[in-house]
Design goal:
Layout lengths: L12 H12 L2 E7 L11 H8 L1 E3 L5 H14 L1 H12 L6 H24 L3 E5 L3 H17 L4 E6 L3 H4 L6 H7 L2 E4 L2 H10 L8 E3 L22 E5 L8 H13 L5 E5 L5 H10 L6 E5 L3 H10 L2 E4 L8 H9 L3 E4 L4 H4 L7 E3 L4 H13 L1 H18 L2 H15 L2 H4 L5 E6 L3
Helix pairs in contact: 1-17, 3-5, 4-6, 5-6, 10-15, 13-16
Length: about 425
């Protein structure tokens, strides 16, 4: 199953892609989420299908939640109490944290009951915060009251988890997880820094992948007099939309006009529009909101440059999509991005928060079409070599099969896995 604060989610469509490919390899993947999605967030037929088959923890009634607790208590009350004390006593003197963990333990009981009914004893979480916590607790509950070999694993993206590593209890999760997947070498380095050396052998890198067929390389095209720069990212502080606005204003003052198209949901739409107005760029900035995958692809096909001036990332799939489709990319030198976008080779990479360098890189792409064409070709080859979703799914499938001992405990020809993620 697949647990998220909201699932399906436009911001994490790559997880749905991963699940699709794992299923094609013969793995039966059920999905779950902490919160049900809003109707407005369902952008495609795949989203509607995902909602219909996803188990939502917070949609469960108090009666069902109480039944989960009662069922666990009937089986092994003492073991359950010991289990709760073992995981909740870690932050017992941090009252807000303890309250939050207690609520998550209740959600884990709900998930345990649902999994037990489905015969699921393997859980995979995406991201190292709430989903990983609930996966960990669910596994501890299952081991305590079922006596079966429950296992759990997690894919950690970063960067957020590393900033709050103590609050996210990453060291404890590294110790208890059966498998830890990283999306980049940078992520692996941070987990090795945080965890005990004894946990290093369970940490593996499996990069995010995209469906290359959906992002076929477009034909070369001339750059118009007013180029279009597209950004596909949540409208949140860390994505750098205001930095790009400042860079565009600098280029305008140098006689270079840009059209900016921002694709993605978020709470900063009003603030971005207001800043564009202040800079005298309101006519050149369009906020498109969340779009279905087909429309996102259309925006990429119609653009001239992709820019992601982000200050906090794991390894952005949006960059992979733009590179695969043939857009020159301009982005920042943080986290795992330099493993994907190599400055001057597969794109332009500058330090974060440097609007002047963003502006200079955009200008260099526009001024040297021959160099940009070379980077586009190399970028497509790089994505095809390292981020083909079919290949990355095979890598993950092999690791999941080994760490969850699929053949040892699952008699059916296909295996049931609970996969979890977060917005």
């Amino acid at each position: 199953m697949h647990l998220a604060t909201h699932y399906p989610s436009a911001s994490h469509s790559f997880i749905a892609t991963e699940i699709d490919h794992l299923r094609q390899l013969g793995l039966t993947v059920h999905t779950a989420a902490i919160n049900p999605p809003t109707e407005a967030s369902l952008l495609s037929d795949r989203d509607h299908e995902a909602r219909a088959t996803t188990f939502y923890l917070k949609a469960v009634s108090w009666i069902s939640a109480s039944a989960a607790l009662a069922g666990a208590c009937r089986r092994h009350p003492v073991r359950l109490l010991r289990c709760a004390y073992r995981v909740l006593s870690i932050d017992m003197f941090d009252l807000p944290s303890t309250f939050k963990r207690t609520m998550q333990f209740g959600e884990a009981l709900v998930l345990w009951r649902h999994c037990a009914k489905q015969g699921i004893t393997a859980i995979h979480a995406h991201f190292g915060q709430a989903p990983a916590t609930i996966a960990w607790y669910t596994t501890e509950i299952g081991r305590a009251v079922d006596g079966r070999p429950w296992t759990w694993s997690v894919t950690i993206h970063g960067w957020t988890e590393f900033v709050i590593e103590d609050r996210a209890q990453l060291k404890h999760k590294l110790r208890t997880a059966d498998l830890v997947v990283c999306v980049s070498d940078y992520t692996k380095s941070q987990l090795q820094r945080i965890g005990d050396r004894a946990t290093w052998d369970k940490i593996h890198v499996v990069r995010c992948g995209i469906d290359l067929d959906r992002f076929a390389l477009r034909e070369p095209r001339p750059v118009p007099a007013v180029p279009t720069v597209v950004v596909t990212a949540r409208l949140s502080e860390e994505k750098g939309h205001f930095v790009l606005l400042q860079a565009a204003a600098q280029l305008r003052d140098q006689g270079v006009r840009l059209r900016l198209r921002f694709v993605g949901p978020g709470h900063l739409a009003g603030a971005i529009a207001e800043r564009a107005q202040e800079l005298g760029m309101a006519d050149d900035v369009q906020l498109l909101g969340a779009l279905p995958p087909a429309r996102v692809r259309e925006e990429l096909l119609a653009a001239d440059i992709f820019c992601l001036p982000t200050s906090a990332e794991g390894l952005p799939v949006a960059l992979m999509e733009a590179m695969a489709i043939g857009l020159p990319v301009v982005t920042t030198f943080i986290s795992g991005i330099p493993e994907l976008v190599i400055d001057g080779v597969t794109g332009c990479v500058v330090p974060a928060a440097r609007a002047d360098l963003i502006a200079r890189s955009i200008a260099s792409v526009l001024d040297a079409p021959g160099r940009s064409a070379e980077m586009i070709t190399t970028a497509r080859e790089h994505v095809a070599r390292h981020h083909d979703a079919r290949a990355t799914a095979r890598e993950l499938f092999a690791l999941l099969s080994s760490s969850h001992q699929i053949e040892a405990w699952q008699p059916a020809p296909t295996t049931t896995l609970l996969s979890m993620t977060v917005d």
